[in-house]
Design brief:
The protein is of the alpha+beta class and 179 residues long. It has helices spanning 14-26, 30-33, 76-83, 103-118; strands spanning 2-9, 36-40, 43-50, 53-60, 65-71, 88-91, 121-122, 131-134, 143-150, 155-162, 165-172, 176-178. The mean pLDDT is 86.
């Protein structure tokens, strides 16, 4: 059985801090090194359109946090090495000893991380009543109001004024940008 903990670390340096922790634990005895099973940096896939091309990039889903899976009974020396690593601010939980996550919490969190990795989300989030400008297609440079958002299909229904009449256009996320 294993336990999961959340570490609060310096934002933007999660990879560096994970590598530091792993190298510091490698200095311990073979027993101490085996107590940490894995260290996860929660990331998600983000789709972005630049220069007319759709690109998928990674970004941190929970910036400033690492998930650590350990054995049930972690040696105090191991926790001391982790807590005193440069860039580690502390762990979630009250008191000096970190509090492990409940199994339901970690199951939900890991499932959410996997979903965010498998399906890219748009870099810009649209919501109803946002003002947008059309940047591609026959209605380029028109401004409108978002009436409906379909995240699965990455489509918007936008209300624009054409010849003094309100018209609903069905556009993709990459055809518009927020104003």
């Amino acid at each position: 059985m294993s336990q999961w903990y959340i570490l609060h670390v310096r934002t933007g340096q999660e990879n560096k801090i994970r590598n530091l922790i792993q190298s510091r634990l490698a200095d311990l005895s073979e027993e101490g090194n085996k107590q940490i099973k894995q260290i996860i940096i929660p990331i998600e896939e983000v789709s972005d359109t630049s220069s007319g091309e759709k690109k998928v990039k990674e970004r941190r889903y929970l910036p400033g946090y690492l998930l650590i899976e350990t054995e049930d009974n972690v040696d105090e020396n191991v926790w001391h090495k982790i807590k005193t690593t440069t860039g580690v601010f502390g762990s979630l939980g009250a008191g000096l000893k970190p509090t492990p996550l409940e199994s339901s919490e970690i199951t939900k969190l890991l499932k959410e991380i996997e979903e965010r990795k498998s399906k890219p989300i748009p870099k810009v989030e649209f919501s109803k009543n946002d003002k947008v400008e059309i940047i591609e297609g026959p209605f380029i440079n028109f401004t409108g109001i978002v009436e409906e958002v379909n995240h699965e299909k990455e489509r918007l229904k936008v209300s624009v004024s054409i010849f003094g009449r309100s018209t609903i256009l069905d556009l993709s996320f990459r055809q518009v940008e927020k104003v």
